[in-house]
Amino acid sequence: MSPARDSQALSLDVTVQASYRYLFHEPVALASASATERPLVVFLHGKGERGNDLRLLERHGLPRLIAEGRSFPFLVVSPQCPEAEVWSDAPGLSEFVAAAVARHRADPARVYLTGLSMGGFGVWSLGQRHPERYAALLPVCGGGDVRWAPRLKNLPTWVFHGVRDTVVPPQRSVDMVEAIKAAGGAPRFTLYPEAAHDSWTETYANDEIYRWLLAQRRAG
User: Fold this and answer.
1) What's the whole-model pTM score?
2) Least crowded by CB within 10 Å, which of 30, 84, 117, 187?
3) Sequence-separated contacts (24+) of 207-211 with Cβ below 8 Å
4) Residues 6 or more apart whose Cβ sits within 8 Å of residue 155
5) pLDDT for 75-119, tens place per residue?
6) In CATH, which of 3.30.420.40, 3.40.50.1820, 3.30.930.10, 3.60.21.10 is domain 8-214?
7) Maximal C-alpha separation, the chain
8) CB neighbours of 32 closer than 8 A, spacing ≥ 6?
């Protein structure tokens, strides 16, 4: 596997007067690749990593693995949520993703959303609002609005949750999965029988999720 470039701390202003600082990971192998060879994963962190210190993002998930030296065969954009906001209502987040795709020459047909806890809620929210923009969703211990689940029936989705989670009840994921199925979709669902709220460590350590993500491509 090619060595990774160090994560870069960057920022993007978007049209709704919102500004997001973020970590950007670009593997050396993709530095000179064409846009069609540059898939992008957007990672949304949990509630405890909000604020103005990007180092907080390296506590969990993809930013932690990258900080520990892991390289991935895709670009990773990890924005930081302002202290007073939550991802499911964060202003301009969709515009931020679109701007990041353009700025980093990513393949618009291979943009993937993943996130944990509050970030899992953000994945559901963004996906439900703009399912046509993403190639796949991978929410971890989050929840969405079941009323909008039919919008996701054609969007590849793999959901993760811990059965023993007392912070975000696993029923939040169960409800979304069942609602998508009722609408004609076929989401994948992994329930960890022994996991509590931290269902992300095992998830992001599993190479199968990355193979699955990269196998998905948005049509059209």
Assistant:
1) 0.91
2) 84
3) 209/138, 209/158, 210/72, 210/73, 210/74
4) 127, 131, 134, 136, 137, 185
5) 999 999 999 899 999 889 999 999 999 999 999 999 999 999 999
6) 3.40.50.1820
7) 45
8) none
